[in-house]
Amino acid sequence: MPITAEQVHRLVEPLVSARGFDLEDVVVSGPADRPEVSVVVDRDGGGDLDVLADLSRDLSDALDAAPDTADAVFVLEVTSPGVGRPLTRPRHWRRATGRKVAVDHTDDAGAAAHHTARIGPIDDESVVLVINERGRLRTERVALDSVIKAVVEVDFSRPSVAELEMCGLDADEIALRRSAP
Description:
Elements: H1 5-18, E1 22-29, E2 36-42, H2 49-65, E3 75-79, H3 90-95, E4 100-106, E5 112-122, E6 126-133, E7 136-143, E8 147-152, H4 161-166, H5 171-179
Parallel strand pairs: 2-3
Antiparallel strand pairs: 1-2, 4-5, 4-8, 5-6, 6-7
């Protein structure tokens, strides 16, 4: 019997939660005789490669020990959400604070709107977008329930200190982001 995303989700969710991560997604793809099982996890502050490697070993051991999946042949990948990930929950937005995002939403009048901006302060109801229009910075509050689609984008720019401050980042995080290659 082929391994399913539902089986994996049920088996790994308690382990993922115990490690302080949220289980964002489980995807089973590829050929039935050797599928790829991708477990997507995230948490505040992210997870470095060593932490994800440890989690991967624990999940692999749990799947190998469970009667439903013990005999299944699969390739396991434990990963964090990356660029291009959809932002669908307040925690996704919060964890991407300061990152560049493309947002399609409806404005207060119900018309379609699009912004490429940085994610600023967020609460459970709305997000502040920090918009850089040729060096002129402004903010716009967008209700989360008005968002049609939002994805983190690849960002090759080096945002200004002022832009990152408007996003609500502290001095240490700003210094880290400004020094990144």
